[in-house]
């Protein structure tokens, strides 16, 4: 590609690369690069917590805090990348160098996950964990530096490829760019967990984390190679020296100069940055004003990401209390998150080709800031939907005892019916091997239970805030036992299962995945977690060996009772009864679709538009810096989730959703007011005017005329006017 020089600006012209359907060909390499890079990033992230937990053997707290620190770092490092790009290396070189750092980081992660490296005794577990921890931490640091560092540069570099006459194409580019982000992340979050589930190893076979990290590493190398292949076609804007250093010095000078001239005798200036005019170039001051105006507008934006980020946390937890059975397929709670990239892939084209043109046809000027405001509103609406779903879920949740109550269930281990007298509940009759359907609630510390058939009477000590099951024994001489039952729903939508052995001899119980172990006579096992679907239990006691199967939904708890009558040749399928201690989730996961729809529609309006807005409103020499500013709003949003959730601590989850929706609604109103006063600018036009003026200066232009023109340009930047958006200044 031959770069043409603009005679007025003295800058290389963009948009002169070979074109396909009006788009610069170079764009193809950039979007493929983004697709591969996002595959690499989100794929690695999908298995990271599991790697910490099961490979490095960290506890949940350490695993989640290191995970969140890593994610936060990934959205903080863009500042670094942007400064390097805009002030020193330029975007092209920054992307190349940081991609190399990134790929090295991914390779380090893949190598750190090869257990054979330090598995000297070949038992399948690493013997030098420090090696794996250090290597993976170095890897993660390099990845955070790489992914964060290149992110603002790639988006801005893509925008740079378009000429001023290609504004529509540039807007489409940012939509396609977003599609690539989500296409890459969708594919990788499906593929890498499958790779992780494989067994691999040289001496012993273990879960294949090295493959799950290795494929993202390979994709990052592909991203780098694709980007380099396109090298000859790119428009590469040259950095204009240490721009960030100049910006800081200029702002510092403006502040100190303003302070020095604070006395009333000095005439005030239109903008506080104008106090830098005594020393700094007017063009630089104008550019700083552009950046500050946009950054000021960004202040309320992190709130959007605060809500958005809860998809991965609160909403996934909500899904664990729902039923994921969709008939032909069963969706796991964490898989619901993939609805977001799937919806992005459908909504972005619909918005671009149907909704926005329709709005335009209706004569409405749906400017970027209006879109972003609507996007925020939709995200707030998504949280209202989440609150409604939560209220529905709460109705179906078991009523666990408060701190002043205790709950008791009865299980008749005998072969004959018994009638138990319970204070406040009268007589309760239980058939042989039957449990009471519900828990009985008491406020007393101790109750007296009388059982007839055989006659027995006992004082039972209850524990406040606890659920227990009383195992009514076969005979008077046998011990009465109280179990400790669950007082919360099982985690992650799993089912908590335990066994009570009513036989006079020990029994071993297991499934193909879970071992309940040996259960002594008249005793009970611990709870084990069983995933949804059909599970087959194998029972073995001396000569006796049998199996039975049950279907499980999500989030239930059962106590299976092995009756004393079970013997060689018994049919376990019929003989073993189960007491439903916690009902399976009954609110369907499909009810989460509206909230996912609204948050994703909001994201398309907010985030895709925000990306393009950050580019179009940035001065030419600070495009990457403003992209980094945009990404910083994502990072801050992440932190706010942690703070608000910690501080608010609301008793009911739905109230927390309503709180977040209300907060975003308030922020949305503030943003719309700020946006109303924002004046869209065309940085190229303003910069060209300033540059022209400098040229005119050289031609000894009339000083008065020059001053007048400068004043008009300054006013362009400082004032709001009513012109239409598109190249010219316009209000929200
Ligand atoms: C969380 C999804 C996989 C990706 C999301 N829809 C998205 O595109 N982004 C979330 C933060 C900004 C943006 C990204 O650049 O990844």
UniProtKB/TrEMBL annotation:
The keyword NADP does not apply. It catalyses: N-acetyl-D-muramoyl-L-alanyl-D-isoglutamine(out) + 2 H(+)(out) = N-acetyl-D-muramoyl-L-alanyl-D-isoglutamine(in) + 2 H(+)(in); L-leucyl-L-proline(out) + H(+)(out) = L-leucyl-L-proline(in) + H(+)(in); carnosine(out) + H(+)(out) = carnosine(in) + H(+)(in); L-leucyl-L-leucine(out) + H(+)(out) = L-leucyl-L-leucine(in) + H(+)(in). Residues 711-732 are annotated as: Disordered. Coiled coil: none annotated. Keywords: Cell membrane, Glycoprotein, Membrane, Peptide transport, Protein transport, Symport, Transmembrane, Transmembrane helix, Transport. One of its GO terms (biological process) is oligopeptide transport. Residues 711-726 have a biased composition (Basic and acidic residues). Its main location: membrane. The chain crosses the membrane at residues 20-42, 62-83, 95-117, 129-150, 171-191, 211-235, 290-308, 342-359, 371-391, 593-613, 625-645, 657-681. InterPro entries: MFS_trans_sf, POT_fam, PTR2_symporter_CS. Pfam families: PTR2 (PF00854). It is found in: Apical cell membrane; Cell membrane; Membrane. GO terms for molecular function: symporter activity. PANTHER family: OLIGOPEPTIDE TRANSPORTER-RELATED (PTHR11654). Belongs to the major facilitator superfamily. Proton-dependent oligopeptide transporter (POT/PTR) (TC 2.A.17) family. Electrogenic proton-coupled amino-acid transporter that transports oligopeptides of 2 to 4 amino acids with a preference for dipeptides. Transports neutral and monovalently charged peptides with a proton to peptide stoichiometry of 1:1 or 2:1. Primarily responsible for the absorption of dietary di- and tripeptides from the small intestinal lumen. Mediates transepithelial transport of muramyl and N-formylated bacterial dipeptides contributing to recognition of pathogenic bacteria by the mucosal immune system. This is Solute carrier family 15 member 1. It comes from Nothobranchius furzeri. The gene is SLC15A1.
């Amino acid at each position: 590609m031959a770069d043409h020089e603009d005679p007025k600006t003295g800058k290389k012209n963009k948009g002169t690369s070979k074109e396909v359907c009006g788009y610069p060909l170079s764009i193809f390499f950039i979007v493929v690069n983004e697709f591969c890079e996002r595959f690499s990033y989100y794929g690695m992230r999908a298995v990271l917590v599991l790697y910490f937990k099961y490979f490095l053997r960290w506890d949940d707290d350490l695993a989640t805090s290191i995970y969140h620190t890593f994610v936060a770092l990934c959205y903080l490092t863009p500042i670094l990348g942007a400064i390097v790009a805009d002030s020193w290396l330029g975007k092209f070189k920054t992307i190349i160098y940081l991609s190399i750092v990134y790929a090295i980081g991914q390779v380090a992660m893949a190598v750190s996950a090869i257990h054979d490296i330090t598995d000297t005794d070949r038992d399948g577990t690493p013997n030098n964990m420090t090696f794996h921890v250090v290597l993976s931490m170095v890897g993660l640091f390099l990845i955070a530096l790489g992914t964060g560092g290149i992110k603002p540069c790639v988006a801005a570099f893509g925008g740079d490829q378009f000429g001023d006459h290609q504004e529509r194409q540039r807007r489409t580019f940012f939509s396609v760019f977003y599609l690539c982000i989500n296409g890459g992340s969708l594919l990788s979050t499906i593929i890498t967990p499958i790779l992780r589930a494989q067994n691999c190893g040289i001496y012993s076979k273990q879960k294949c984390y090295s493959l799950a990290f290795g494929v993202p590493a390979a994709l990052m190398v592909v991203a780098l190679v694709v980007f380099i292949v396109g090298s000859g076609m790119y428009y590469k804007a040259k950095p204009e020296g240490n721009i960030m250093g100049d910006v800081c010095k200029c702002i510092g000078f403006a502040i100190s100069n303003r302070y020095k001239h604070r006395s009333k005798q000095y005439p005030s200036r239109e903008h506080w940055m104008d106090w830098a005019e005594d020393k700094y170039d007017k063009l630089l001051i104008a550019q700083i004003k552009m950046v500050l105006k946009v950054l000021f507008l960004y202040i309320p934006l992190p709130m959007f990401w605060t809500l958005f980020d809860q998809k991965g946390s609160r909403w996934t937890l909500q899904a664990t209390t729902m039923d994921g059975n969709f008939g032909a397929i069963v969706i796991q709670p964490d898989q619901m998150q993939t609805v977001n990239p799937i919806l992005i892939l459908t909504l972005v084209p619909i918005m671009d080709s149907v909704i926005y043109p329709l709005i335009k046809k209706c004569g409405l000027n749906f400017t970027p800031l209006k879109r972003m405001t609507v996007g925020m509103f939709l995200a707030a609406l998504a949280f209202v939907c989440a609150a409604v779903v939560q209220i529905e879920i709460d109705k179906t949740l078991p009523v666990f005892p408060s701190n002043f109550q205790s709950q008791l269930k009865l299980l008749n281990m005998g072969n004959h019916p018994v009638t138990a007298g319970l204070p406040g509940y009268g007589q309760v009759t239980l058939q042989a091997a039957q449990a009471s359907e519900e828990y009985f609630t008491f406020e007393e510390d101790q109750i007296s239970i009388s059982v007839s058939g055989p006659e027995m009477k006992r004082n039972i000590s209850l524990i406040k805030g606890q659920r227990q099951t009383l195992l009514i024994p076969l005979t008077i001489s046998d011990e009465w036992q109280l179990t400790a039952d669950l007082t919360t729903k099982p985690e992650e939508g799993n089912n908590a299962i335990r066994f009570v052995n009513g036989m006079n001899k020990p029994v071993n119980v297991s499934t193909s995945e879970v071992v309940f172990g040996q259960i002594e006579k008249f005793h009970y096992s611990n709870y084990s977690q069983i995933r949804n679907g059909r599970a087959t239990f194998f029972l073995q006691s001396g000569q006796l060996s049998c199996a039975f199967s049950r279907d499980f939904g999500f989030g239930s708890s059962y106590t299976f009772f092995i009756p004393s009558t079970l013997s060689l040749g018994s049919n376990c399928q019929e003989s073993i009864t189960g007491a439903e201690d916690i009902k399976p989730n009954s609110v369907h996961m499909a009810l989460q679709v509206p909230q996912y729809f609204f948050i994703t529609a909001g994201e398309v309006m907010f985030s895709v538009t925000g990306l393009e807005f950050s580019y179009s409103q940035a001065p030419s020499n600070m495009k990457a810096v403003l992209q980094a500013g945009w990404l910083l709003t994502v990072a801050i949003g992440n932190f706010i989730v942690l703070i608000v959730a910690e501080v608010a601590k609301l008793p009911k989850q739905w109230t927390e959703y309503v709180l977040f929706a209300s907060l975003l609604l308030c922020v949305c109103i503030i943003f719309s007011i700020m946006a109303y006063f924002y004046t869209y600018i065309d940085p190229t036009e303003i910069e060209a005017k300033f540059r022209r003026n400098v040229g005119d200066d050289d031609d000894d232009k009339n000083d008065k005329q020059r001053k007048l023109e400068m004043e008009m340009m300054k006013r362009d930047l400082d004032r709001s006017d009513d012109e239409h958006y598109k190249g010219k200044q316009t209000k929200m």
